[in-house]
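Researcher: Here's the sequence for the chain we discussed earlier.
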Amino acid sequence: MRVVRALSAALLTLGLAAAPAAADASPSPSQDGTAAPSRAGTSFRTATEIEQGQPATASGSTGDYLYWSFPADTGQRPTVEATVKLPESHASQTWQIDVYDGLRRRQACQYGAQTRTAAADASAVRLACVLRTVRAWSEPWANDPLPGTYYVRLTATGIATADLGLPVGSEVRVDSREIGGSAAVDGSLAEPLVPGVATKPGVEREDAAVPAGLEPEDGWASGRWSDRWVWTAAGGILAALAGVGGYALTRGTGRPSRVPPA
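Model: Thanks. This is the structure I predict for it:
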């Protein structure tokens, strides 16, 4: 029974240690006091970098392509939301939001209103795209989301000629849900997919573009840790407890006192 108590205490300690780790894995908005971006790029190359949990706004014209970029790491399921403020007078308009990974492959949305049509009297249109869970590793031929830079493109796909050039305002926000070990795979990338470049705030010259510098607050995980390890260890400890308990139940109480020793 001493062994059983020791193993039970080890299991309890492991569970308590895993709880803070799971809580700390959730992404949090930037606390460095930086102002939210108030502009958008016009191409992949000039996409404006934003942090997860940080709203970004931009002014543009109907017919423009607006681009932002953000980092997404292993185990995250990003949700991209966009709101377009339409002019007071306009015809019916269709708006669409697309998300591309670091290789500029278009990523499908699991669910969400990725495309919406605004009526002529609508003042705004809201879009959303929930991506698949980012994987630590994938086959070369697959189109799975992988850790790295992701691009958001917002544009109007169906507009009347008279509405071209009308001023619009937009707001974009990216949040993620931590999926955890249920989405873990046996493998990892050598480096996250961040081949793109982006301009820094205040840089206007095209030749001043620099490599994309955004990354998660705690750095790139790239499959190094998953709570699947916790559950694997917990399963091993439970199996050991079951074995010790089974032995204790089946071994009996020893040699009866009325039976002489051999």
